[in-house]
C-alpha cells in the first residue's frame, strides 16, 4: 500500500462531491457545484476529483482506494455521464456502497464518539435491488413485503450501531416510489419518507425545488391550527404517509408574486408541514432508540438539515449526546464513501476529527494578486494588511459603520452552510439591514432569515438555550433583551439559527468577532453564504470579485487583501 495512504470518496448523485483522506484525515474535499457553477450539480465526477488531486499535489497513481456511491446506479469505472478519470488507471481498486451507508459513514467518520447509534433519514436512498447487489448479507433486514414488492422500492430511513470501527445495520426501512401521476405532488422520491413529504410540500408552496429548506423559513409566519389532519402514521414500528393529506391542498403556487399575494395561506401550509416533519422525526428516532438504546446518536441524511426539528430532538433528551452531521445531504455521500474505505474496507483505526467542516484548498497570495491584476479587475485598487489584527479591526470598524463585507478566507466550507470562510457579514442590529441584503445582495425572498454567528463562549448570553451549534443546523431563541440588537438575525417567531464559532478551526473569524465585540459591544455578526439566489457559494477569488461587482456589497476581503466600492 502507498505511503501516505490516500482514500478517495466520490458521490455521483445530485449534489455531487469528492473527498480525499490522507492517513484517515480529510485533507481536501469539494462539492461539484462550486466548480461547475451549476446549483446541485452531480453526475460525472471528474471536476471534483481533479480539484482534490491538484490541491494535494498528487495523481491517481497515489490513490490506494476509491469508494463511490450514486443513486439508482452502480457507476461504471470508465464512463458515467461522460468519460471518467479512472480510465487511465486500470489497476486502481474501486468499491461501491449504498446510499444510506454512505450517509452513515459520513457522520461516524467526523463525530467524536467512539461508539454510537446512527440514524439516517432522507427522501430516497438506494433501490432495493441495487442495495442487495452491493450488500447481499443484509437481506435479513428487509421485510418479506418489501422483497416481494413488484414496484421499485428504495431506502427511506436506516438505523445502525457503530462500534468505533464498523457499522452494523439494526433497522432498514424501504418504501415504494411515489406514483408518477398528474398529482400536484408527484416527485421522484419515495412515497412514505419524511424527506419526500417535505420536498412535495415545498414544491407546492414555492413552485420549484431550488431550496426545499425555504419552507422552514416560511413556517414561522403561519398558523397550523386551522388544519386538523395528520400526514404521518406509525404502524408496526414503520413510518407511513397518509396520502389523503394531498386532497386538502389544491392551490399550488405559480411563482413568488402569487405566493406573496396569498402569503398567509402558504405560510399556514408551511407551518403545518414543518410541524408534521418535527413530529415524524421525533417519533421515528424515538422508536428506534426505544428498541436499541444508546447514549450517543449520530444523525444524517437530508432531513437532518432541518434545524427546527433538530432542536426539538435535542430538547427531547432521548440521548445524552447528538452529533448532527454538517454535510447531511447528498453532498456528504463522498465523505461517507471515503470513511467507509478507511474504516471498513482497509480496516484502519478511526483518526480523531478536529470538528472542522472546511476542506477546500487555500489560495496563495500570488494567485490572489494575479486575479486582482487581470485587466478586467484593475479598476479595483486593493490594499494588503500585513497583520491579522489590523485587518480584523479595520473590518470590525466598517461593519459597525453599517457596511456589508464579503469575507473570503482559507479553505471553503463543505456542506450547505457558510461558516466564516465564504461569508457575507453585516451588523446584526442596524435598521433595515436584513431587507437590504435580501433585496440588493442575495436577490431572494424577503421573508428569509439570516443566521447569527456568535463566539462559542458567549452564546448563552444572547440565546436562551445556549446550544453548541458549530454548523448552523440548530435553532435557538434570542433572549428578549437582545431582540432589538439582533433584529437582523432573529426570525419572526424569535428564533435564530445560530452558528457558534470555535477558534481552534475558525481562528480568523473568531478574531473578527472579538474585534467587533470590542467596537460594538455585541459578540454577534450576521452571517450568510457568499453567493446570490441560484448561485453556488463562491469558491475562487475570481468568483468573489464577480459577485462583489454585481451586488451591493461594500467591501471584499480575500485573505488579507481588501477592495472597497
How would you describe this protein?
This protein has 565 residues and is an alpha/beta fold. 31% of the residues lie in helices and 20% in strands. It has helices at 32-36, 46-56, 99-110, 128-134, 144-147, 194-206, 214-218, 256-261, 263-291, 307-315, 333-345, 365-372, 388-400, 433-442, 459-462, 507-520, 541-550; strands spanning 6-11, 17-22, 25-31, 63-69, 94-96, 116-121, 153-162, 167-176, 232-235, 238-241, 296-300, 321-324, 383-384, 405-408, 422-426, 451-455, 475-477, 495-497, 499-501, 524-529, 555-558, 561-564. It has an eight-stranded mixed β-sheet with strand order 13-22-21-14-15-20-16-19, with helices on both faces. Strand 21 (555-558) and strand 22 form a beta hairpin. It starts with 5 loop residues before the first strand and ends with a strand. The mean pLDDT is 95.
Amino acid at each position: 500500500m502507498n505511503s501516505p495512504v490516500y482514500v478517495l470518496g466520490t458521490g455521483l448523485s445530485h449534489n455531487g462531491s469528492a473527498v480525499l483522506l490522507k492517513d484517515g484525515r480529510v485533507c481536501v474535499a469539494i462539492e461539484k457545484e462550486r466548480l461547475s457553477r451549476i446549483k446541485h450539480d452531480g453526475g460525472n465526477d471528474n471536476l471534483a476529483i481533479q480539484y482534490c488531486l491538484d490541491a494535494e499535489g498528487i495523481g491517481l497513481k497515489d490513490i490506494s482506494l476509491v469508494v463511490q456511491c450514486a443513486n439508482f446506479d452502480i457507476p461504471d469505472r470508465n464512463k458515467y455521464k461522460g468519460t471518467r478519470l479512472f480510465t487511465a488507471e486500470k489497476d486502481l481498486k474501486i468499491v461501491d456502497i449504498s446510499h444510506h451507508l454512505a450517509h452513515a459513514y459520513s457522520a461516524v467518520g467526523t463525530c467524536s464518539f467512539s461508539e454510537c447509534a446512527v440514524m439516517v433519514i432522507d427522501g430516497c436512498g438506494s433501490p432495493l435491488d441495487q442495495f442487495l447487489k452491493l450488500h447481499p448479507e443484509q437481506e435479513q433486514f428487509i421485510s418479506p413485503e418489501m422483497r416481494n414488492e413488484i414496484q421499485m422500492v428504495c431506502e427511506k430511513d436506516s438505523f445502525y450501531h457503530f462500534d468505533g470501527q464498523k457499522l452494523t445495520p439494526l433497522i432498514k426501512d424501504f418504501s415504494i416510489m411515489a406514483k408518477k401521476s398528474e398529482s400536484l405532488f408527484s416527485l421522484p422520491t419515495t412515497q412514505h419518507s419524511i424527506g419526500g413529504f417535505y420536498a412535495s410540500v415545498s414544491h407546492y408552496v414555492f413552485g420549484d425545488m431550488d431550496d426545499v429548506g425555504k419552507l422552514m423559513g416560511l413556517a414561522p409566519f403561519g398558523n397550523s391550527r386551522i388544519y386538523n389532519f395528520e400526514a404521518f402514521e406509525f404502524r408496526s414500528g414503520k413510518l407511513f404517509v397518509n396520502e389523503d393529506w394531498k386532497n386538502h391542498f389544491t392551490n399550488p403556487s405559480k411563482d413568488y408574486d402569487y405566493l406573496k399575494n396569498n402569503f398567509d395561506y402558504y405560510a399556514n401550509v408551511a407551518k403545518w408541514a414543518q410541524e408534521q416533519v418535527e413530529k415524524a422525526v421525533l417519533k421515528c428516532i424515538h422508536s428506534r432508540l426505544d428498541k436499541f438504546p444508546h447514549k450517543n446518536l449520530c444523525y444524517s441524511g437530508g432531513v437532518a438539515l432541518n434545524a427546527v426539528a433538530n432542536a426539538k430532538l435535542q430538547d427531547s433528551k432521548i440521548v445524552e449526546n447528538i452529533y448532527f452531521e454538517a454535510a447531511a445531504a447528498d453532498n456528504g455521500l463522498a465523505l461517507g464513501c471515503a470513511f467507509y474505505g478507511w474504516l471498513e474496507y482497509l480496516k484502519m483505526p478511526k483518526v480523531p476529527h478536529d470538528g472542522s467542516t472546511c476542506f477546500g484548498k487555500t489560495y496563495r497570495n500570488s494567485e490572489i494578486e494575479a486575479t486582482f491584476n487581470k485587466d478586467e479587475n484593475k479598476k479595483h485598487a486593493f490594499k494588503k494588511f500585513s497583520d491579522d489584527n489590523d485587518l480584523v479591526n479595520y473590518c470590525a470598524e466598517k461593519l459597525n459603520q453599517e457596511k456589508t463585507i464579503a469575507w473570503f478566507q482559507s479553505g471553503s466550507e463543505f456542506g450547505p452552510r457558510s461558516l466564516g470562510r465564504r461569508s457575507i457579514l453585516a451588523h446584526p442590529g442596524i435598521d433595515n439591514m436584513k431587507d437590504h441584503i435580501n433585496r440588493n445582495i442575495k436577490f431572494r425572498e424577503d421573508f428569509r432569515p439570516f443566521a447569527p454567528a456568535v463566539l462559542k463562549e458567549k452564546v448563552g448570553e444572547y440565546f436562551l438555550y445556549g446550544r453548541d451549534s458549530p454548523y448552523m443546523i440548530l435553532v435557538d431563541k434570542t433572549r428578549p433583551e437582545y431582540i432589538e440588537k439582533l433584529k437582523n438575525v432573529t426570525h419572526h417567531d424569535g428564533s435564530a439559527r445560530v452558528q457558534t464559532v470555535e477558534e481552534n478551526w475558525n481562528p480568523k473569524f473568531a478574531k473578527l468577532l472579538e474585534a467587533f465585540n470590542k467596537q460594538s459591544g455585541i459578540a454577534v455578526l450576521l452571517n450568510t453564504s457568499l453567493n446570490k439566489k441560484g448561485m453556488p457559494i463562491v469558491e475562487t477569488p475570481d468568483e468573489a470579485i464577480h459577485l462583489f461587482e454585481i451586488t451591493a456589497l461594500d467591501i471584499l476581503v480575500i485573505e488579507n487583501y481588501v477592495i472597497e466600492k
